[in-house]
Structure formats: structure tokens, C-alpha cells
Amino acid sequence: MFSFAERLVLFNQYEILKKLDPEKWSMYARHQEVVEKGIESLYGELGISETTVSEETAEEVSNILQMFQAIKKSSNGVSNNIADRTKFVGFGPSQSSAHFSYADFLSRVLKLPQEISKGADNRPELQLEKYRTMLKRWDEIGRRHKLSADQIAHLVA
Fold first, then answer.
1. Buried-most residue among 10, 16, 118, 154 (CB within 10 A)?
2. What one-character DSSP code corresponds to residue 42?
């Protein structure tokens, strides 16, 4: 998975980390040995995800989160029946891990809100196609950030 040159760079970085952070010396030494010996089955232990997030996936996730932000900001006064159908339930483990990974990154690192429904009917693994349909409808109405009750109802129809 890693080339010899990449393994050499990682080996040297772990050597530096052992000196910079002596409290974690044993962990860095273990990671260094994994890299040195090229033990691919343990590369996951290094904390490096094999998941890559394409530009297309990142844009889709960002658009979905922006759409749900627009819905949330516009939902004041909307009937509970529609409001219940506008809750963002998140991305599930059976979907592309890139979708979940990027949404988690936006939420944790960039502090973008990702208010995931915790309801008993939360089935995020079934939502991606619904989100894509909603995005198409959002495009139809010009990706407005201030939505009327009728526009919100159209998005979740």
C-alpha cells in the first residue's frame, strides 16, 4: 500500500515524534515498526484512514448540509407534520464511508452543525437517495436559503 519512499518518510516522522512527545514514545515506536516492516494488515492502527473523499462527494455532502440548514432556518412556524419530515438523520455506515467521513469532518473540525435525528425511526443508511432527490428539488427552486412552507413541503414530498 505504501511505497518504500513513503514508508521511509513515515519511519522518520515517527522517529521525530518519539523525541517531541516522549509520553507516546511506545505508540510511535510500534507504529514505526509497522511501517518499517511494511505490515499492511496493521496500517489501520496508524490512524490513517483508507477512505478518500472525492471532490464530488465533498460537494454533495456540503450541499446536503447547506440544504438542511436552509430548511431549519426557514422552518419556524411550519406545521409539525412537515417539521418532523425535515429532520436530518445523518449518513449511515452502510452508505459510502466517504459521505459519513466528510460530514463528520465538517461537524467536528469546521464546527458545521450536523444535527442528526436521534429518533427511533432514524435509518440514515436509507437516506442518501432521499437527500439527492431533495437536492434536485432545491435546485429547481434556485437553492434559496429562505424557504416558504410550500417550498419546504415540496422538498420533503
1. 10
2. G
CATH number of residue 17's parent domain: 1.10.287
List, for residues 10-49, the tens digit of each pLDDT value.
999 999 999 999 999 999 999 999 999 999 888 888 887 7
Whether 42 and 59 share a structural domain: no
Report how far residue 36's alpha carbon sits from residue 117's, in angstroms, rounded to the nearest whole number: 44
User: Which grid coordinates are listed for 113?
Assistant: 452543525
Angle at which helix 4-20 crosses helix 25-37, to 10 degrees, equals 170
Domain limits for position 27? 4-46
Residues 34 and 83 in one domain: no
SS3 109: coil
